[in-house]
């Protein structure tokens, strides 16, 4: 029994979009030269690249939901160029430079699509802040500075007074600014890319695949009202890759949550006193991500949960408790805006691995996958999906060689219930240790 996405219907990014056009669903028996499962950043990139490499091929891109309803439309709107979190700690500088090059290739690709198709997604090259609240956070920032120096990347310190003029709050003590990050409206970007796919890519939405099997040298994808037969299948399914029997005991499903306000009024914006369109990630990894969007919304993201059943693991009571925690974080930063309500609170599930290794490659004959983004879906999904198409058609490039060198096999997980208990304990410990930075 394949467990399908079970996301809440309160993603602010998605709800802010205009209504989508009616979906085309999988119906009848379909034959494709290539099938791509999952229409997030990885799947969209894979389908586009396949179409470029094989202009006469029939390519079917299939998703269980509407485009942008899933994880790709639920992140905090950062496209980060730097190796992220634990990848930045890698001892091999060549490894980190390869990651940096891959991420920047993804950013260039996304920017090209935004400009070429006029995608209205608040795309902006404004960099990002990595912020500390107190001594614990500042210690992380000093370590981050050493990592930036080792990497040879530009950065500068932003002290409390200057920082508060940007953020509209004196809550943070210091930050390090790095210039290479882009901000965007993720749901708008993903939908915009789906709206401008090449002509030989057919997008099938609201078409869950409930069975996958090998028949006479072909792969058969069984849906509710139809099926697809194809010799080559590309999986851009992230954590759901394990539902098809691959990497089954190697991926950890984690959900992170965000809340945001309605757009601030002119009077509220004057009280806020900061700038528009910036993003701050926490120096302490378990801290709070903060955004002020270009359309005047303040976004708070923290709270991590192990979700063995994906969205079905999250009760309404849990969501309300998370919303209350977000409210505390908001009021600590913006007490003068206490009357400004949250309009949406949502979660997004992604895959991590215990050894923080991304999977990229061929799973078996005719099946290829990029899975386990470890929390950096926009850039990594884009470049890994693109290069997965190259791998599937037998193309070669330096970028393909690079991605194969920096990826590997996620480590095996202990069996349940020990896995769930261990992950939940680690999340609780990280939250307690980071309580001063929340």
UniProtKB/TrEMBL annotation:
GO terms for cellular component: cytoplasm. It comes from the Bacteria. Residues 33-391 form the FAD dependent oxidoreductase domain. Gene3D superfamilies: D-Amino Acid Oxidase, subunit A, domain 2 (3.30.9.10), FAD/NAD(P)-binding domain (3.50.50.60). Keywords: Oxidoreductase. One of its GO terms (molecular function) is oxidoreductase activity. This is Oxidoreductase. It comes from Zobellella denitrificans. The lineage of its organism: Bacteria, Pseudomonadati, Pseudomonadota, Gammaproteobacteria, Aeromonadales.
């Amino acid at each position: 029994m394949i467990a399908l996405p079970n996301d809440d219907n309160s993603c602010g990014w998605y709800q802010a979009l205009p209504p989508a056009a009616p979906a085309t669903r999988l119906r009848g028996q379909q034959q494709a030269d290539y099938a791509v499962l999952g229409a997030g950043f990885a799947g969209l990139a894979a389908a586009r690249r396949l179409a470029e490499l094989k202009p006469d091929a029939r390519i079917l891109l299939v998703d269980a939901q509407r485009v942008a309803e899933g994880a790709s439309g639920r992140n905090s709107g950062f496209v980060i160029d730097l190796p992220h979190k634990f990848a930045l700690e890698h001892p091999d500088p060549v490894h980190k430079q390869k990651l940096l090059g891959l991420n920047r290739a993804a950013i260039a690709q996304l920017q090209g699509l935004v400009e070429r198709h006029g995608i209205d997604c608040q795309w902006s090259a404004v960099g990002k802040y990595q912020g500390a609240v107190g001594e614990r956070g500042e210690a992380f920032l000093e370590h981050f500075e050493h990592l930036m120096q080792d990497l040879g990347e530009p950065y500068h310190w932003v002290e409390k007074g200057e920082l508060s003029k940007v953020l509209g709050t004196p809550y943070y003590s210091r930050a390090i600014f790095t210039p290479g990050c882009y901000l965007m409206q993720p749901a708008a970007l993903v939908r915009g890319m789906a709206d401008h796919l090449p002509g030989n890519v057919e997008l099938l939405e609201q078409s869950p695949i409930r069975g996958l099997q090998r028949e006479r040298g072909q792969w058969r994808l069984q849906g509710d009202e139809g099926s697809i037969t194809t010799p080559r299948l590309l999986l851009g399914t992230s954590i759901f890759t394990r539902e098809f029997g691959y990497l089954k005991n190697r991926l950890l499903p984690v959900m992170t949550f965000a809340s945001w306000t309605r757009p601030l009024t002119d009077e509220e914006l004057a009280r806020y006193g900061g700038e528009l369109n910036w993003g701050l990630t926490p120096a302490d990894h378990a801290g709070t991500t903060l955004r002020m969007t270009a359309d005047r919304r303040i976004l708070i993201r923290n709270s991590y949960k192990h979700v063995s059943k994906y969205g079905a693991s999250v009760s309404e009571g849990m969501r309300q408790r998370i919303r209350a925690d977000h409210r505390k974080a908001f009021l600590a930063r913006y007490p003068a805006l206490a009357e400004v309500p949250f309009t949406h609170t949502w979660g997004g599930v992604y895959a991590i691995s215990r050894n923080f290794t991304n999977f990229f490659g061929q799973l078996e004959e005719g099946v290829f996958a990029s899975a386990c983004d470890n929390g950096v879906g926009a850039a990594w999904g884009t470049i890994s999906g693109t290069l997965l198409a190259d791998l599937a058609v037998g193309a070669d490039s330096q970028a393909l060689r690079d991605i194969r060198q920096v990826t590997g096999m996620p480590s095996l997980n202990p069996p349940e219930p020990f896995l769930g208990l261990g992950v939940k304990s680690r999340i609780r410990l990280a939250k307690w240790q980071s309580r001063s930075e929340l």
